[in-house]
Amino acid sequence: MPELPEVEALAQFLREHAVGAVVGRIDVAALSAIKTFDPPVTALSGRDVTGAGRWGKFLGMDCGGLWLITHLSRAGWLRWADNPSASPPKPGRGPLALRVHFFTPEGATPAFDLTEAGTRKRLAVYIVHDPAEVPGIARLGPDALAVTEPEFAAILGAASGRIKNVLVDQTVLAGIGNAYSDEILHTARISPFATAKTMPAAKMSALYDALRAVLTDAVARSVGQDAARLKGEKRSGMRVHGRTGMPCPVCGDTVREVSFTDRSFQYCPTCQTGGKILADRRMSRLLK
Questions:
Q1: CA–CA distance, 128 with 27 (Å, rounded to integer)
Q2: Among 88, 186, 190, 242, which one has the highest count of C-beta atoms within 10 angstroms of its own C-beta?
């Protein structure tokens, strides 16, 4: 899933490649991805692209006061093409959800595709006058890179539940998903199952520092990358997430995994849980 660093990089990519262009034809290949109908998608055609922005994990393109907002969900992505096909795509086939064509001042005709892999289609597109009209944006907590340490401490102090769940709750803190929460907790040497509101002040400060360090580094590595390379850049920077069975780069212990129905997270027992192996929920159910 694209998280704060990748979405920030995609917003910067659009600022560099789409701002100044005029929106041309828009091809809708998956009608289910369009979550608003007034204004219609066609209202974007002929408008100048004047900016791009990010709200948590939402990506937006400003078309002269009318915004195209998307949430890429777990398997969505933005793909840029300098020479896109001139033929409209056939609806309902393949991963393509939406294609936006442009006319640049230099006479080029690029486009970007919003695509989604897999069978669970959750990618969402909104056409709105104000990003705050998107329900998911209206519910967001403070941005993870904008929150101050006192604000962060207050947020955790008021939160119930395990710290892993608190970090990925977009209504509490916006922008962090499963992957970067694993990395932040590993960097801070905190168990994913630690209780947020009872965390000692020293641990809370270490967690805030880790959050800033991990996200700032990831943004620095991501911004400026071609959109096609961002997924690989994200994977290459991970120390525990997606590395089950591999040695921890800090201590050498084996990275472990806890699995749920549709997701999993990774951690290092030596660095984070005092050597304790956390119960794998998937295996626990099988053994009942």
A1: 18
A2: 186
| 107 contacts 139 by C-beta, under 8 angstroms | no
Structure tokens at 132: 């705050």
Q: What is the pLDDT of residue 228?
A: 74
105: which 2 tokens? 């001042």
Q: In angstroms, what CA-CA distances link 125 with 128, 141, 146, 153, 177? A: 10, 21, 25, 34, 20
Query: What's the pLDDT score for residue 286?
Result: 34
Would you kindly state where each structural domain of the chain is located, as residue ranges?
4-138, 149-287
Distances (CA, A) of 72 to 58, 75, 137: 7, 7, 13
Can you name the residues that pair with 116 across neighbouring β-strands? Answer: 76
Helix (H, G, I), strand (E, B) or coil at 205: helix
Is-cis flag, bond preceding 150, omega within 30?
A: no
Report the predicted TM-score, pTM, of the whole model to 2 decimal places: 0.92
For residue 28, the 8-state DSSP code is E
**Catalytic site positions:** 2-3, 57, 263
Return the CATH fold of 4-138: N-terminal domain of MutM-like DNA repair proteins (3.20.190)
Single-letter code of the amino acid located at 6 = E
Please state which CATH number belongs to domain 149-287: 1.10.8.50
- Amino acid at the residue 95: P
- Residues 8, 60 contacting (CB under 8 angstroms): no
pLDDT in tens, 72-112: 998 999 999 999 988 888 887 789 999 999 999 999 999 99
